[in-house]
Amino acid sequence: MGTRAVLVLLFFLSVGRSDRSLRSVFGAIFVPGTQFGQSENSVADEAPNVPPMAYSVTEKEFTALRIEYIKNQILKKLRLKEKPTVAIAELPKPVKEYDNLIPDHDDNLHSGYSEDFYGKTTQAIIFPYEDEARCLRKIRFPSVCVPFEMPTDIHSTDVSTAELWFHKEPDNLDSHNQTFVVSEVAHWDTNKSFQKTKPIAIQETSLTEGWLKVDVTYVVKNWLDYQDSPTHAISVACKTCGMDKNQSPISFSSELKPFLVVYTHSQQRRSLHRRPKRQTKCSAGRNECCRESFYVSFADIGWDDWIISPEGYDAYFCKGSCVTASALTLSATQHNSILQKVMYGQNKNRGSRPELTPCCAATQFQPLQLVYMDNNRTLMTKVLSNMIVESCGCW
């Protein structure tokens, strides 16, 4: 990227989170090949005495600017300074195969899904932070201790349900039903010298081998309510298994490892009925303000090593002229009218003062649903507001 484009990018990134900056960047404040700082409809077009600025932005540089701005917005909305330095490990089979565990990109997310700048967590899949924790326990039955590190941006009031998934290993007594006892591993004292287990659930199964899930909503909410430490553990014991008591009754292989799924109330906030909005799409030979496609591939920008879904998305941007009558009929031009009234009052004799010319920019946005792996081995699903231009107009 050239020096001039870098300067423009630094300007955009310094603008921060304001709605004005969003509309300006996703719209065509200045078009490729024109002088920087001058829009297609700028006052400078009608003022020949104003000297033009000495540099311009090419189409290639402008595309790079848009991509860098989008990358910057995603990181900021995820509260990240840089992309996580993790590679997507082999995910357990239910996570890969069940649609409800990795949600598809939802085109029907309501545009008012969240007005917060930062991403809203809708789901978290938490993997054990080590293969197996060594809990201090009296071994009476085949059992295992599974440690988890809870996300810091989920509060107990956000949680709707939480489930523990684990894969049962085959046992020589599987001809009869097997009984699993799932317990929270806690301590009697603040120094964590004296360990105790508190039963969460008793699960009876006729499965020889396969996945079981247990509701652990109550204990997860407690963990998030009283977080003296982000790390917690759950014990899974098989009271009826005939295997050696030092063996684990559940699998820890890469595709069969246990995990927690935490669903939040935000997940249910979907728009069931959306009125179709009028969208003016750009086409060949069209000069009026319109919405242009701008697809961002996460593989192309080197982010497919931590973003799982979607593979990419169409961010769109606005471009075109706002000087024609047809363009102005599509716009929210009352903003321009009100601003002129404030500036000029009732004085109709404006003399040589320039007219305020509307600029083609985004008028409505849609959120983006993102599934990614963070540094704490947690698969997060978040909704990021204002990431997709839904409609354009003259402002």
Which features would summarize this protein structure in a list?
single chain, alpha+beta, four-stranded antiparallel sheet, 18% helix, elongated
User: Mean pLDDT across all residues, rounded?
Assistant: 76
Radius of gyration: 28 Å
Structural class: alpha+beta
Task: Report the total helices.
Answer: 7
Strand content: 25-35%
Low-confidence region ranges: 5-22, 24-50, 270-276
Overall 3D form: elongated
First CA to last CA: what distance? 30 Å
Q: Tell me about the biggest sheet?
A: 7 strands, antiparallel
Percent range of helical residues: 10-25%
Number of strands: 15
Order of helices and strands: HHHHEEEEEEHEEEEEEEHHEE
What spatial order of strands do you see in the largest sheet?
6-3-8-1-15-14-11
3D architecture notes:
Strand 14 (360-373) and strand 15 (378-394) form a beta hairpin. The protein has helices at residues 3-15, 19-26, 59-77, 93-97, 217-225, 325-329, 334-344; strands at 120-126, 143-149, 159-168, 178-187, 195-205, 210-215, 231-238, 259-264, 290-292, 295-297, 307-309, 312-314, 317-319, 360-373, 378-394. The model is unreliable at 5-22, 24-50 and 270-276 (pLDDT under 50). The chain is of the alpha+beta class. It is elongated.
